From TrEMBL:
Species of the source: Sphingomonas kyeonggiensis
SUPFAM superfamilies the record matches: N-terminal nucleophile aminohydrolases (Ntn hydrolases)
Protein name, per record: Uncharacterized protein
Gene3D superfamilies per UniProt: Glutamine Phosphoribosylpyrophosphate, subunit 1, domain 1 (3.60.20.10)
Length: 257
């Protein structure tokens, strides 16, 4: 399971999540991305210069890791092969076979899809559930950030809310980062852990951001998806992240009067 937090910062939508993979079972590899930037590529004979690349959309999930990664893989493949047709083609026998096996694959999970639409960011929460037979139902809801300043999705959302309430009572402003960190360090939710990952949506699309946490001595620790900066480098001609990290400063200590 995973805890996802989302909020608006000015005109930008911020989404963060933890990276724990093993539900706290302490396996050798215990970190994996839960937030993705999904490329969008349009193909049409009318494009004289070849396929058109639109701003990336975002995808984040909380729940069964294999199902979430498979959904991201399908979305990545599908959204890079968008093609305009007058009549849709019927599903193949192979597609029907895969659909029939989904209920036995523990593919139930929840999350959000997000991106830039028109003049601002837009996000939907979703939850995949199963009806009778090989039928999946996806309940989607538009996120209203004017009504709810901060959304919490997945495991540990009650602990996150308790942290926000306690900070408010102490006269301090809680943030999405501090709320997620409170759940990561809470022993009652072993499936939420690892480090903090972050994505920010602007008019240019969804960008994955490295996260550095500054301790009380001023030393910055952290990295990108759980990896330190010394482990990161260009992948071919691509840079894993763009315009600089998100830096989390230490929380001010509260002194009782």
């Amino acid at each position: 399971m995973t805890l996802i937090l989302a909020w608006l910062s000015g005109d930008n939508l911020c989404v963060i999540a933890d990276t724990r993979l093993s539900a706290g079972q302490r396996v050798s590899v215990d970190a994996a991305p839960k937030i993705y930037a999904v490329p969008v590529v349009l193909h049409s004979p009318s494009f004289a210069d070849g396929p058109r690349r639109d701003p990336a959309m975002g995808f984040a999930f909380a729940g069964h890791t294999a199902a979430g990664h498979m959904t991201n893989a399908l979305a990545t493949a599908g959204l890079q092969a968008l093609w305009s047709k007058d009549t849709p083609t019927p599903p193949t026998v192979g597609q029907e076979e895969i659909r029939a096996h989904y209920p036995t694959d523990l593919a139930t999970f929840e999350g959000l899809v997000f991106g830039w639409e028109g003049d601002g960011p837009l996000a939907y929460t979703f939850e995949i559930t199963w009806a009778e037979g090989p039928t999946a139902v996806a309940n989607a809801e538009l996120m209203d950030f004017a009504k709810f300043g901060l959304y919490a999705i997945g495991q540990g959302h009650r602990v996150a809310q308790e942290h926000i309430d306690s900070e408010w009572k102490a006269g301090r402003k809680a943030t999405g980062y501090s709320a997620l960190q409170a759940v990561i360090t809470n022993d009652s939710h072993h499936s939420v852990g690892g480090s903090v990952q972050c994505a920010i949506t602007t008019k240019h699309g969804v960008e994955l951001k490295p996260v550095l946490q500054v301790d009380e001595t001023g030393r910055a620790v952290g990295g990108f998806m759980g990896a330190g900066g010394s482990h990161l480098g260009p992948i071919g001609d691509l840079v894993p992240f763009g315009s600089g990290p998100v830096i989390i400063h230490p929380r001010p200590k509260h002194h009782a009067g």
